[in-house]
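[09:14] KT: can someone run the structure on this one? pasting the chain below
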Amino acid sequence: MPGSETLFLAFVGGIFGASLGALWAFCLCGLMTLFGCGLILAGGSDFLLLQVGLGPIFGPHAGGFLAGVVASSYASGFRGNHPGGPEAGKDILSPLIGTSWDVLVVGGLASLLSVLLVPVVAAIPILNQADHLALAILMVTFISRFFFQKEGLFGKALTRKQFGLLGTNSYQISWLPWMAPWPRLLVLGFGVGGLSGGVAKLCLAAMATGNLTTAGAGTVPIIFGWGFSAMMLTCLQLGQGKVAKVPCTHCMALVAALGYVYTNSLIVAALCGTLGALTQELGARLFYNHAHDHLDPPAAGIAMGSLILSFVFKPEWLNLSAWF
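[09:31] RB: done, structure tokens below
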């Protein structure tokens, strides 16, 4: 289990992340992840990548995203002081520094709980084949939805009855409706998947010639495209109107990079990017579209996609990676 200093850093990082708001914090998390990858590829330490960008200090499951999501749910559904009003639980763009001290503390506590859950998830058979950070994000968000929004896993019953659990009312209730139509989504997933697989291939080649020995070196090919996609969301954070309609691709990038690492095939990586697009959209339709708060579709997509790839490619399961 994490030590006391690690837990303290997770708590204070969550306070800071909540003050920024979830999406600003995530963009910062992506930036630190990219810097961490660069340091490793240059032969440096893996501290920035594993302990800050992906770790308890400011990882996506801590202050680098989740804290702001839970604080937003609390501020809208329980405290009533969200900048966007009581119905703004899905607003992860607004900083929460203007709310109240307890909103920030809730962000810190959410980060702390998530960091404690990661080793628990890692010890659960079958479940531990999925991405541990994504699962921790989902678990803590489900808890906050129940307590702060008084809703279950799938959100409001009214819209589910109106449009069906997987219905979108012609994308009117969709998460990111500009990228939700199937042809657009699948082509995007294929393209992002191929690109992320190519980056993973180049990272592996650089690592082979650079004699890198840090523990985090094996993470770089998988996470580089994810970090780049996270940074790209600054366009969403800063944009207005049509400018804000940028794609959200970090789920596609990570699932694709995993596919490449398992198979060394760019075609498989591109197909896995499409898988990431599908699981992300499924996560949105199940857990986001009908709810009052933000339950992250990319986190759901990463959890589902990584679990599927583990079963398909790992030696202890179907071991299809042996075919490549």
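[09:33] KT: thanks! The chain has one domain: 4-323.
[09:34] RB: yep, looked fine to me
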